[in-house]
Write a structure and sequence with these properties.
- By secondary structure, the protein is of the alpha/beta class.
- Helices cover 49% and strands 16% of the residues.
- It is built from 29 helices and 24 strands.
- A hairpin with a 4-residue loop joins strand 3 and strand 4.
- Helix 8 crosses helix 18, helix 14 runs parallel beside helix 19 and helix 15 packs antiparallel against helix 19.
- The two termini are 59 Å apart.
């Protein structure tokens, strides 16, 4: 109780300082008066509590006033070139075409020479050749000392999110996009210290999840376990947000609480509760989880609360949620008073208060279910009771957290998902299984890939359940524009007044959840520590193992080839990526799209679950809209053969060339430089003919030096024209006697420089496909080319990935079918 009052006083002082910005002289006089009042109270034996609390309030105000000065403003105009020197202070992450990192800056040069700049910058950088040649993605490491040159841009507020304020609360003053970076200090592996080693471990765990789980499940697993959200597909992120479940992707009290409950149950089951040694396991595990998740503020706060709870258990003190909640907030504001103004802090603080109010109801419901289970001891009733208690707890916890924070959500994001409570309640039961499964998968991969695969297949079920839930759940929301700050204040004052009455300051483990047989330990009956006989546990483990094996076998059987040729033109935005699956099951990927996840996300949707192999990868040329996605493909997939455009002065000078060359050097793939006249027999009746580049191709033009392929299956053929222009088209017409094809992948996204009338007439296609991004800045496809194609194939047989989504062609060598995804 006293600890909670101290913490509340500290928070009150911090809040006053941030709101009113009081002068230091009156504060000093008030603090002196409080000390004098304390002395007189001691002399006359008056209660000291009022003076102690007042002193804590004043000290908190002093701490906030003497807080680190606010981050200096990066006073530049948009797109101004600047240079900066500093140190990487986060775990860099690949995102789109760049690597995202936070740089703690020492000096900047805005055009007038170096000047000190004690702040941080959010940097989107491309790795220099020296790093790309010697390191694996994401190339940059914690502790690297960098010199960067790039364009400074002011962060802009998003439609429903104050992005500049979000960065400012993290001490970040600006955003820079840089293609010119130099490593000026030792590598992170030598200077990163313990934190660098933690980030290295985090990276290895992330890689193990990528290897053992298909997309998007592996991306969701990384977000939930490691806090790495960069690989979650944008459309899936939007589905989480629309259904009111986006908070599940942010490491918070829900995740820490799940980890602690699992660890408590395992520790008690293994060591028993006779001594407090079993509490060491959950304490170590929750803080280890905080470290590998990147230590976000919400996770740190939840871990502090968990530590307070575990300490109270050891000391035999009352385990109150209010003191734990207040203490965790006070510790964080003592470290950084500005955290009190962050929306993430406010939301998680309010959510925990709502959960505290809902716990008594959850305990009563859980106890009622446990009593019913005990009164009806039919076979399997203890497992049914556990399932019912878990489901009830999930719904009640979701209800409490959502009801406590709805005005803050509506005010901050201008929308409130009205079915968010139900969606979260349905998702929560899967969360502990996902966390435990991904944890075991990522650690198992460090011993042997087969161990990771076993745990990965088990974890795939709850991950798939969560993914399907948010994808199919109705996205209904109402506007929050009518919510004012007055309503937020009124709502939280009501919660603050009701919370002590509702909870009685009593917070224990949800006894109702674990009431009944699950945690009983009747030794005389031979039942194990978890309340289930060893025979039942053994049988249950056998059933789970057989189920996983059966799922694995049947998935492989059902994913077998249907005996037809499939050609997928992926919707990857403004870029190219084509997957060929032969009748015999051979898999060939041509180009990888413009983003690091373009091809891998598409492959996850169309290859069998868990299949991480490709028979061939083709790089047509080193333009980023074709090649960047292949870097991630080579990193994640086992590729037997790589066919690529021969190196020339233009390709070697490409910014992406060092990464491409380094990735090829690391992979154990057969490398074949493409040359016109080559023919690759994929299987009987299916072949790839290389039409370009020829010996006469212009080496100064990457487009005209691109690889052009003609895929032939009996009477049906596909011409994949990459980005060639009229010069290369004329060269193909001179050197290739037969280029007639049923399907033409239109060159260069429908640019005016390609698809000449003569070339189109010789190809004589029945269908045309244009791989193009919606509202791209190049104006592709050009109206003149669309008109030319319409005259050649007809309006209804022109397919565009921006309008039709992924376009799939299926053929048995005689007939041709087409499917679109939009």
């Amino acid at each position: 109780m006293k600890l909670g009052l101290f913490a509340v006083a500290w928070l009150a002082g911090t809040f006053v300082a941030l709101r009113l910005d009081p002068a230091l002289l009156p504060l000093s006089l008030l603090l002196l008066a409080a000390l004098c009042a304390g002395v007189f109270s001691r002399i006359y034996r008056w209660p000291l509590w009022p003076m102690v609390l007042a002193g804590i309030v004043l000290i908190a105000i002093f701490r906030a006033e003497f807080n680190d000065s606010p981050a200096p403003s990066l006073a530049t105009s948009d797109n101004q070139t600047m240079t900066a020197r500093g140190t990487v202070v986060n775990d860099p992450e690949a995102t789109g075409q760049f690597i995202k990192l936070v740089l703690k800056v020492e000096v900047v040069d805005l055009g007038g020479g170096d000047q000190p700049f004690p702040s941080k910058l959010l940097v989107y950088a491309q790795p220099p050749p020296s790093l790309a040649s010697n390191r694996e993605p994401p190339y940059f490491r914690y502790g690297d000392q960098l010199w960067i040159e790039g364009l400074a841009r002011a962060p802009r507020a998003l439609a429903e999110f104050d992005y500049p304020a979000y960065l400012a609360n993290q001490g970040i003053s600006g955003v820079i996009h840089s293609r010119n970076v130099m490593l000026t200090g030792p590598s992170a592996g030598k200077t990163g210290g313990w934190r660098g080693r933690v980030f290295d471990l985090r990276g290895r765990m992330s890689d193990n999840l990528e290897d053992a789980l298909p997309d998007p499940q592996s991306a969701i697993g990384q977000a939930l376990l490691l806090g790495k959200r960069g690989r979650v597909p944008p459309d899936l992120v939007e589905e989480f947000r629309a259904t009111g479940t986006s908070h599940l992707l942010a490491i918070s009290g829900l995740h820490i609480g799940s980890i602690m409950l699992i660890a408590l149950a395992l520790g008690a089951g293994i060591l028993g509760k006779r001594w407090s040694a079993y509490l060491i396991f959950p304490f170590a595990l929750i803080w280890f989880y905080v470290l590998i998740s990147g230590a976000p503020p919400s996770a740190v706060r939840a871990a502090i609360m968990g530590t307070v709870y575990l300490s109270a258990v050891v000391l035999g003190r009352p385990r109150g949620i209010l003191p734990a909640l207040a203490l965790s907030a006070a510790v964080m504001t003592a470290h950084s008073p500005q955290v009190l103004q962050q929306i993430s802090f406010q939301l998680s603080f309010g959510a925990m208060a709502g959960i505290a109010m809902a716990l008594p109801l959850q305990e009563r419901v859980g106890t009622t279910i446990a009593g019913w289970t005990e009164a009806n001891p039919f076979h399997g009733s203890h497992w049914l009771g556990f399932f019912l208690r878990w489901t009830a707890a999930s719904f009640i916890v979701s209800f409490g957290a959502t009801m406590a924070t709805w005005p803050l959500v509506g005010f901050s994001f201008d929308r409130m998902p009205i079915l968010g409570i139900l969606a979260t309640a349905l998702a929560l039961p899967a969360l502990p299984f996902i966390l435990l499964g991904t944890f075991l998968t990522s650690l198992g991969g460090m011993f042997h890939p087969a161990i990771a695969q076993i745990f990965g297949w088990i974890t795939l079920l709850p991950l798939s359940y969560l993914t399907e839930l948010v994808s199919r759940f109705p996205a209904l929301a109402v506007s929050g524009g009518w919510i004012g700050s007055w309503l937020i204040w009124a709502w939280f004052l009501i919660i603050g007044a009701l919370l002590p009455l509702r909870t009685g300051f009593a917070y224990r483990l949800p006894q109702g959840l674990f009431a009944g047989r699950l945690l009983k330990q009747p030794r005389e009956t031979g039942v194990g520590r978890l309340g289930v006989s060893s025979t039942a546990l053994r049988n249950f483990s056998v059933v789970i193992g057989l189920f996983v094996v059966a799922v694995f076998i049947w998935t492989r059987i059902l994913a077998g080839s249907d005996g037809k040729l499939h050609v997928y033109f992926f919707d990857v935005g403004q870029g190219d990526s084509v997957l060929i699956v032969t009748p015999g099951g051979k898999q060939i990927l041509v180009d990888g799209g413009p983003g690091s996840e373009s091809a891998t996300a598409a492959l996850a949707r169309h290859l069998p679950k868990g299949d991480r192999s490709l028979d061939m990868v083709v790089l047509t040329h080193l333009h980023s809209d074709h090649s960047r996605g292949l870097l991630e493909v080579l990193d994640r997939y086992a590729v037997a053969t790589v066919l690529f455009s021969p190196e020339n002065p233009q390709s070697v000078q490409s910014a992406i060339y060092p990464q491409w060359r380094s990735m090829l050097d690391r992979e154990d793939s057969m490398e074949i430089p493409a040359e016109a006249g080559q023919q690759v027999l994929l299987e009987p009746g299916v072949s790839l003919q290389v039409l370009n580049p020829s010996a006469q191709a212009n080496p100064e033009s990457r487009n005209n030096h691109a690889v052009v392929l003609r895929l032939v299956y009996d009477e049906v053929s596909f011409l994949l024209a990459s980005d060639i222009e009229s010069e290369a088209e004329n060269g193909i017409l001179r050197s290739s006697p037969n280029i007639n094809s049923a399907v033409l992948k239109v060159a260069h996204h429908g640019s005016l420089t390609s698809t000449t009338p003569r070339f189109l007439a010789e190809v004589d296609p029945s269908v045309a496909v244009i791989s193009v991004g919606a509202t791209n800045r190049f104006g592709h496809p050009r109206p003149e080319i669309v008109e030319r194609l319409t005259e050649a194939v007809g309006e209804n047989t022109i397919f565009r990935t921006d309008q039709d989504g992924t376009v799939e062609f299926i053929t048995d060598g005689q007939a041709l079918w087409v499917k679109t995804r939009k």
